[in-house]
Amino acid sequence: GKNLSFWPLGPLFRGGGAFFLRRTFKGAALYTKIFAAYLEKLLFEGFNIKIFIEGGRSRTGKLLTPRPGGLGMIIRAYLDGACDNLFFVPIFVGYDRVIEEDAYLKEIEGGKKNPETLKGLISTRKFLKKKYGKVYIRFDDPISVKDYISENNLDLSKTTDREYMRFVKQLGYKLINRINANAVATPHGIMASAILTIPANPFSRKQLLERANTYMNMLTFCDAELSDTLLIDPDNTLNTVIHTFMSRNFIELADEDEEDITDETHFIIKHNKRAILDYYKNSVIAFFVPCAYTAVAILECDRFTFSLSDLVQRYRFLQKMFTDEFSYDEDMTCEEQISHSIKGFMGQGI
Questions:
Q1: Residue 200 has what pLDDT?
Q2: Backbone angles phi, psi at 94, to 5 degrees
Q3: What angle do CA 197, 249, 187 make, to 5 degrees?
Q4: Which of 17, 74, 78, 105 is deepest in the core (most CB within 10 A)?
Q5: Model confidence at 4, in pLDDT bands (50, 70, 90)?
């Protein structure tokens, strides 16, 4: 973003190969054409391009709807002969804890984002002294645009602008879905999910851990990647997160005089911190979406016995309704997703 083009970061970024763009191209036809030509030149020269497909940082914790503008320009450059083929490599970047917690909370509540400045850069030194856990980076298999176009039997040279952008959005959702598939489930995300989905408030530590273990089992069944700490010592890790959430005032003891935390200890959610808990919950929510659709479809049946075919229509409706909230795997049919979810439910005795 152009907002990061200030001294000394601007020259440093440029020296490392970065280029800057306006946050919006609206009403700037000439700028749009020049920027597209610049991307075409980069591809022609054989450079790799890193693109943030969401168009900005998520303040909610889950991936945003793909922005097709830059993606469309890059694919158009390929179609115009800038290169023989394009390979998109979906990359997941996740954190145990985000540094910008307070800023995100302020923005979610309607506050304005503070612009980046040299003073702000200098003040970040204090954060480097604190421990924020790990950063997780995962790479998916490259997706060949040439193969993708061939598999879908498309002739993009004959498509209208609307049809072309529909293709770009379709590819964008595929990339978002592959990023989600490579996400790393963290203890913060699992514990936040457990806290926010318990209907009772206050709730006990026993209830909390039971729900967290249910989510852990489902994540394992879905073959999701868990953070190192969850693999090594899950019980101790989840307990540590409870204490961390208490120290950061996300939750508090129902009885302030209680000294030892046991299974029967009760907690209360601090409502002014719900948005931050939501952020961490949303970092793992993509793994549970097919199960959630299936569960809603089962409950909608309102029958003790049902078949897979009873659920398909409801599942498709939910999938379509929430397309802009949750991307879905186009390589798996609704029937396959439902069958997989039911198998997971049966494995847990649900």
A1: 80
A2: -135, 165
A3: 50
A4: 74
A5: confident
SS (H, E, C) the chain: CHHHCCCCHHHHHHHCCCCCCCCCCCCCHHHHHHHHHHHHHHHHCCCCCCCCCCCCCCCCCCCCCCCHHHHHHHHHHHHCCCCCCCEECCEEEEECCCCCHHHHHHHHCCCCCCCCCHHHHHHHHHHHHCCCCCEEEEECCCEEHHHHHHHCCCCHHHCCHHHHHHHHHHHHHHHHHHHHHCCEECHHHHHHHHHHHCCCCCEEHHHHHHHHHHHHHHHHHCCCEECHHHHHCHHHHHHHHHHHHHHCCCEEECCCCCCCCCCCCEEEECHHHHHHHHHHHHCCHHHHHHHHHHHHHHHHHCCCCCCHHHHHHHHHHHHHHCCCCCCCCCCCCHHHHHHHHHHHHHHCCC
Per the confidence metrics, is the pTM higher than 0.70?
Answer: yes
CB 280 within 8 A of CB 61: yes
Which residues make Cβ contacts (< 8 Å) with residue 9, sequence separation at least 6? 116, 121
Those residues whose C-beta lies under 8 Å from the C-beta of residue 238, and which sit 6 or more positions away, are: 187, 190, 191, 209, 212
CA distance 19 to 151: 33
The residues, ordered by sequence, that sit 6+ positions from 176 with a Cβ below 8 Å of its Cβ are 53, 54, 63, 65, 66, 327
Mean pLDDT, range 255-268, rounded to an integer: 89
Structure tokens at 98: 């985000």
Q: How far apart are CA 148 and CA 161, in angstroms?
A: 19
At residue 127, does pLDDT exceed 90? no
Tokens 């514990």 appear where? 191
Q: Is the pLDDT of residue 86 over 80?
A: yes
